[in-house]
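Good morning N.,

You mentioned wanting to compare the apo and holo forms, so I went ahead and generated the holo version with hypoxanthine. This is what I fed in:
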Amino acid sequence: MQEIIQSAAALLMAAGAESAKIGLILGSGLGDYAETLDNPRFVNYADIPGYPVSHVAGHKSRFVVGEKAGKTVVAMQGRFHFYEGIPQSLLALGVRTMRAVGVETVLITNAAGGVNMNFHPGSLMLISDHINYSGSNPLIGPNDDAWGPRFPDQSDTYSRALRIRLREMAAAEGIELEEGVYMMFSGPCFETPAEVRMARIVGADAVGMSTVPEAIVAAHCGMRVLGISLITNMAAGILDQKLSHDEVNETAAIARERFTRLVDLILEQLL
Ligand code: HPA
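and this is what came out, ligand included:
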């Protein structure tokens, strides 16, 4: 694992990532944002020895290094998922590669199903906390103390300080921003209506199939984490309609402009 991270970090450095302090992970249907970075440079996962490649529709498989408001950003355009058969420990690669080049704060985005009845497709939700219902954990296995402690604290995984400032900034810009708890299921099936009812009872506001492993690994190695869910659909059983990945990508496309405004705001003014 360490060698894979080192070769990935070397390729990112060669693409000009040495001054990057900000990382960005782009979820389903949201990957196009990476191409709004100035002077984008690309490092394909396929060109990194040992790296997994994401095969999910709507996910490209590459790092994009570029600038926003003069700040260097390392973006992952396309992420790996547990449901692709990749162990969660390998889902740590992207985040640790960012850390290895000096990234201090990572913005993790995803498409998610709305559980909170006040949400609607297109809502943007700041992640305040998560419930790891995936059945695994990316830190299972021997712990490398150079990355972080064996038993990491999770009381402030999604930086409270950043969330407070972002809420104020979004309000000032007139960008509606919900806040809530993200619950991770393994996927690839969408949840059943009974699972969604359970999710609501245990305190979830949104459900999805990503983000939690990356947030755990980022917090473990001392990075600040900010998480944004785009609610692409109401979770199963809430509306009388079936869920599909096409719908996820379609809603993401409709909401792209607002998502872009919010991420621009974060990169330009918050981080
Ligand atoms: N469930 C899980 N993951 C998702 C959903 C959902 O309803 N929508 C987008 N990603």
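Strands lie at 22-26, 38-44, 62-68, 71-77, 105-114, 124-132, 178-184, 206-208, 224-234.

Happy to go through it together on a call whenever suits you.

Best,
F.
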